[in-house]
Write a structure and sequence with these properties.
The complex is a heterodimer of chains A (about 280) and B (about 300). Chain A has about 280 residues and is mostly beta strands. Chain A is built from three helices and 17 strands. Classes of the chains: A mainly beta (about 280), B alpha+beta (about 300). At the A-B interface, strand 10, strand 11, strand 12 and helix 3 of A face strand 8 and strand 10 of B.
Chain lengths: ~280, ~300
């Protein structure tokens, strides 16, 4: 892969909107063209080069492009938004909407990500080594569907409304998660290794969607019905996938675990599932 | 015409193979015992399409580290004359023999990129769930897309992959082991089957992989479309006018095999013959064909064994 390096300079007080930090936007361009790519500061159009030192190599094909943001960019929004291929590595924290509506490629954030990361994601892989803010992988207000594909892996904890309106794809949270996880979800899979807060799966419809709680659960809605406690074979497939494809070794601990199966949200006639691992 | 290998006469002839559709199913279960029970039940009464709805057999046991869910598995191969004649028995047999078998799950054994067609087996089995089945999606948008159905059963859940690969396969690979005694011929045939099963993608649908009757097209009775291979029956070698049983041969067993492709069948035949001719008392090896008039494939023994 060809590596393009973006070194943050002094940032303005108002966040920078830089969806051009994407392999699709930079591939096939010269470094000069890349520096001139438009970014927005409030309603002012500026150039990428005003806020980043641009160096390295640009690939002809976006799939061969690696973009390394080698510093903290907590006030830079839309990094990797809409990307379809290639790879973006942020060495530090990143601002809101990182990887929003991305449909392919891989975005890695070694620090934490702010709100709306991977909102309405369609495909690809987002790895956040630190924490993620609110509305991770969620639908934007007014949208009927949130994430429709892809995978989000968060090493730390996550805020509220993660996976709201989730339709397809997978969210893996290795830390704790705030309330309203998977609210309105209608498909897709969510795995949480840490503590799950209240009102998970509220108004979930089902369509094969489930939330697997591998850690503590603060409270379940009364509109989720306990069906059984069993060892579902299908869970082994997911847990092996977590270990083998995403490198989450902790998943192995649950290969032989029993799960309490709850079905809901019956308040909306839903048949989604919450599967809670039984602690031995 | 014949040639000699390890002191055994091998007729320079060919096995006549037929084109069939084949599929491969991986059955997993809590342990090897239940995976094998499901597999053997599912492949019962599936020796030959002469009178069975399909041809099927266990291919091999699969260790847990190679199965999709990490449990012990058994691979089953199944063959039919058309996609429909493959799909129908697959559906029936999985529905009656695997879905019913405790702790089992089924997975596609022929990846989509290798398959000539994909059959909606799990997608049809789901109706056994009577509306309570759950569609399971994996890998959407980031890994290869996979679809399964989770069907509630009294014991728990039956997990079935939605689609199974089907491939234009080869049936009718065969050779005859002709020996001086029943003991020698049976031992040689058993060794042949063991060797054949070292080749992936090969099935031996007859009992233990062996057919002692052989078969020929038609009979003197109008109601019977196939009969024993009388020219190769030693018991009537002096009675049958055109007997092909040589002097000294008192027992003949046919080794029959199907495979996912011609090359696998050819390789398996060679492995089987080489194993068989190691047994003292084996006098001759030949193969059954119809003069090349019926089957699409002609698998020559000389060619399979790599003899110039």
């Amino acid at each position: 892969m060809e590596e393009l390096r973006l070194t943050p300079k002094k940032m303005p007080d108002v966040p920078v909107e830089a969806e051009v930090i994407s392999p699709d936007a930079v591939s096939g361009k010269t470094l000069k063209d890349v520096r001139a790519l438009p970014v927005y500061v409030g309603n002012t159009k500026r150039a990428l080069g005003d806020f980043f030192k641009v160096s390295g190599r640009v690939a002809e094909d976006a799939s061969e492009q690696l973009i390394v943001v080698d510093g903290e960019v907590p006030d830079v929004k839309y990094v990797g938004a809409g990307m379809t291929t290639g790879r973006v590595l942020v060495e530090g924290c990143v601002g809101m909407h990182a990887g929003a509506q991305m449909s392919g490629g891989e975005l890695v954030v070694t620090g934490s990500a702010s709100d709306w990361a991977a909102a309405e994601m369609k495909g690809g892989l987002l790895r956040i080594h630190g924490d993620a803010g609110n509305q991770l992988g969620a639908a934007y207000r007014g949208s009927a569907e949130g994430m429709t594909g892809g995978c989000i892996v968060v090493g730390g904890s996550v805020g509220v409304e993660a996976g709201a309106f989730l339709r397809r794809g997978m969210i893996v949270i290795q830390g704790d998660v705030g309330s309203f996880l998977g609210v309105h979800m209608n498909g897709g899979e969510i795995f949480v290794f840490g503590k799950v807060s209240r009102r998970i799966g509220a108004e979930a419809k089902g369509n094969g969607g489930f939330i697997a709680c591998l850690g503590e659960v603060e409270a379940l809605l009364p509109t989720y019905i306990h069906d059984t406690t069993y060892r579902p074979d299908f869970m082994k497939l997911y847990l092996r996938q977590l270990r083998e494809e995403l490198g989450i070794e902790r998943a192995t601990e649950f290969l032989e675990a029993s799960f309490r199966r709850y079905r809901g949200d019956v308040a909306v006639g839903g048949n989604g599932e919450i599967l809670v691992a039984v602690r031995e | 015409m014949s040639f000699e290998l390890n002191g055994v006469e091998i007729e320079d002839t060919f096995a006549e193979g037929f084109s069939m559709w084949g599929s491969r199913i991986i059955i997993t279960a809590k342990n090897k015992k239940w995976a094998n029970i499901a597999a053997t039940t599912m492949t019962g009464f599936a020796t030959s399409v002469i009178a069975c709805d399909c041809e099927a057999s266990v291919e091999r046991e699969i260790p847990p580290e190679e199965t999709p869910d990490g449990r012990p598995g058994t691979a089953v191969m199944i063959f039919g004359f058309s996609k429909n004649k493959l799909a129908t028995p697959m559906l029936n047999r999985i529905g009656q023999c695997v879905l019913t078998c405790p702790t089992t799950a089924i997975f596609n054994g022929i990846p989509e990129e290798e398959a000539d067609a994909m059959l909606d087996i799990g997608a049809s089995l789901r109706f056994f769930g009577d509306g309570y089945q759950v569609k399971m999606r994996m890998g959407d948008g980031w890994l290869g897309r996979q679809r399964f159905w989770r069907i509630p059963v009294m014991e728990g859940e039956f997990l079935a992959e939605a689609k199974f690969g089907a491939i234009r396969a080869v049936a009718g690979g065969n050779f005859l082991v002709m020996g001086a005694t029943e003991d020698a011929t049976l031992e040689a045939s058993e060794r042949a089957i063991e060797a054949i099963h070292t080749v992936p993608g090969v099935a031996t649908p007859f009992p233990g992989g062996l057919c002692r009757s052989g078969s020929k097209v038609g009979s003197r009775y109008t109601f019977l479309k196939a009969s024993t291979n009388t020219p190769f029956c030693p018991a009537i070698k002096r009675t049958f006018p055109d007997s092909q049983v040589p002097d000294g041969v008192n027992c003949v067993i046919e080794v029959v095999l199907n495979g996912l492709d011609e090359e696998s069948v050819k390789r398996a035949m060679a492995e089987g013959i080489r194993a068989a001719i190691e047994v003292p008392g084996v006098l001759r090896i030949t193969a059954v064909n119809f003069g090349g008039k019926l089957g699409k494939f002609q698998i020559g023994l000389k060619d399979a064994l790599g003899v110039e």
